[in-house]
Design brief:
single chain, alpha+beta, nine-stranded antiparallel β-sheet
């Protein structure tokens, strides 16, 4: 059956769309990649060997490599507990279940090709992705810069909420990631509010998020960007959930599938581009919101009916042409 996700390129990175007068091509993106198989020091060695730069620290759990051809790249053990001894204990008990994480600075979108090459180099050096062991649950996070003046923030949130079931259905998460709290689906009442929020402004989105989804543990974490835009609307959220403002969407559904046939960083990025293209298509977004109102219900998610409906809507729309894709029968 023809499907939009099957038409997404694996070998090239699509550009973000414009949101009104805010150009998409100039926006930057930071990338965070989790993996096992290498120590922090070994991963830093790979970066230095291939991309140059100098270490500004040589701590066993965190190394910054500055001045590389990718800018500053941080490598760290992805663990942050209350004290040194609890971190030591967790590392001893959990071992390689605690991932090493490589974190780039915000980069121009064309530099994503270099990040993909870095992933190949890490894999060649021994880095392991989430499907190498049953208990692994490693992900890739995109920190996508907010359009100028916050244009498109509400529309992108609405598009993600209405399309999240589809994203998950066409690329089911690894079992180890599904049981972790970091990629929980947005609560149904929040998605329902988004569907109805046609005339929302960012502060309306922030109020609804604070009331219905006051957590960072979602596939799309909006708290950093809402703290940047509308901090006054988040006063009811526990301080420990607010890690600081950031003018970026924090998207964490992609999985680290290093070396897996058919998988690529470009494909994962292009899935996010679908969300932004839906957001920039006022008519398509309105159609999905109306359809949600007619079809909403627990059984819709459990049966996969809403995900299938979204997939059909996206395929029947003008989205593929606007994204520069070939609509071939797969």
């Amino acid at each position: 059956m023809p499907a939009l996700h099957a038409s997404l390129p694996r070998d090239r990175f699509l550009a973000l769309p414009d949101h009104g007068s805010a150009p998409g091509g100039a926006r930057r993106v930071g990338v965070e990649v989790e993996f096992a198989g290498l120590t922090v020091a070994e991963a830093a060695d790979v970066i230095q060997h291939h991309w140059g730069g100098e270490r500004s620290s040589d701590e066993p759990r965190e190394i910054n490599v500055r001045g590389t051809r990718l800018g500053t790249v941080r490598v760290e053990l992805d663990i942050a507990l209350k004290s040194q001894w609890t971190e030591d204990l967790a590392e001893t008990v959990l071992g390689d279940l605690i991932p090493v994480e490589v974190i780039t600075a915000p980069l121009p979108q064309p530099a994503l090709r270099k990040v993909a090459l870095l992933l190949d180099q890490l894999h060649a050096a021994g880095a392991l992705g989430t499907r190498e062991k049953l208990a692994y649950g490693f992900g890739i996070h995109f920190n996508v810069e907010l359009p100028e003046n916050g244009v498109g923030l509400v529309a992108t949130a609405r598009a993600f909420g209405l399309c999240e079931d589809w994203l998950r259905a066409v690329e089911p998460l690894d079992p180890a990631r599904r049981v972790l709290p970091f990629v929980t689906p947005w609560p149904r009442p929040f998605v329902a509010a988004l569907a109805e929020g046609r005339d929302w402004r960012p502060r309306d989105l922030a109020r609804a998020y604070a009331a219905l989804a006051p957590s960072r543990q979602y596939g799309l974490d909006l708290l950093p960007v809402l703290q940047h835009c509308c901090a006054a609307e988040l006063v009811a959220i526990p301080p420990e959930n607010l890690k600081g403002p950031r003018p970026a969407f924090h998207y964490r559904l992609p999985e680290t599938r290093l070396g897996e046939a058919g998988w690529s960083l470009a494909y994962e990025w292009n899935r996010w581009c679908v969300i932004e293209h839906v957001a920039s298509d006022t008519a398509l977004l309105a159609e999905l919101a109306r359809d949600w109102g007619a079809r909403d219900g627990v059984l819709s998610r459990l049966s996969g009916a809403w995900a299938a409906h979204v997939g059909a809507r996206l395929w029947a729309s003008d989205l593929a042409r606007r994204m520069g894709l070939e609509k071939e029968a797969i």
